[in-house]
Amino acid sequence: MERLSKIKETVRLPLNINLPPYLMDHQFRGQAVLPAVEAMEILAVSTLSHLPGTVAHCIRDGRFDKFLVIEDGQALIEVFNDLEIFDNGKVVSKLITKTKSKKALITRTLVHAALCFHGVSNGSEPSPLEIQTTSEHYIPFETIYQNLVPFGPGYQNLKGVTLFKKSAIGEVFAPVLGDSEGLLGSPFPLDAAFHAACVWGQRHAGLVGFPVAFGLRRLFVPTCSGNIYTAKIFPKEVFPDRFLVDIWITDTDGTLQEVALDVVMKDVSGGRNKPPAWIVKKGE
After folding, report:
1. Read out DSSP for 89-107?
2. Residue 269 — pLDDT band, cuts 50, 70, 90?
3. pTM of the model
4. Collapsing DSSP states into helix, strand and coil, what is residue 261?
């Protein structure tokens, strides 16, 4: 039996995160929240700075359990990177905040994101998947951001999406916004790919899903600001309140940039967010 890995060290790293104004465009029910892609970048940079040998291009078992709310006018937020370092080289990194109740004087710790950095043994690319050839439904840019994914201009980077019963494909853009190209490349193409998955889910799963977890994210060629990429969505399973997809992002020549596998898109509104009736595919 393989020996279970053990934690050999724990570290809590304090971080002061600058909040550029465009983050206010990423909202849930009218409240700005830190995007999952930004949380991954923050944790990757902090972890690599503390542990220079960390394999940051391979991220496993990602979770985004609690929104990190950004208040109006807030320019800085104090967070922590809680690290668990295992004897087999695995590193678990958690983005946490601590708040103190004014009445009870109790400190509350919230985990907003958790990632596992652990290298892959095989460097080969995953087997290619094929998009269907007959278009089922096309949703243009304007309709996406007016009716389906109500984000502000900084996060309007899905240029349109073609939906099929078992896949979706769309162009995603990496805008040049501040220091938005980091260790994991531009965060915007993957974020826009989540939008494509969300739109597919509204049509074929009948729910509005946010990314709350993934099994594996692998970067082959980090995305660059100013470029357009292709996002391919491959749904795997649909449940009453969530669905699973694989996401592929390629450049315009078809070169694989990154994959996000077993992404969980969940209705985190408790049923309050509903797709508009016109997009829901009847009889599924």
Report:
1. S-EEEEEEEEEE-TTT--E
2. very high
3. 0.93
4. strand
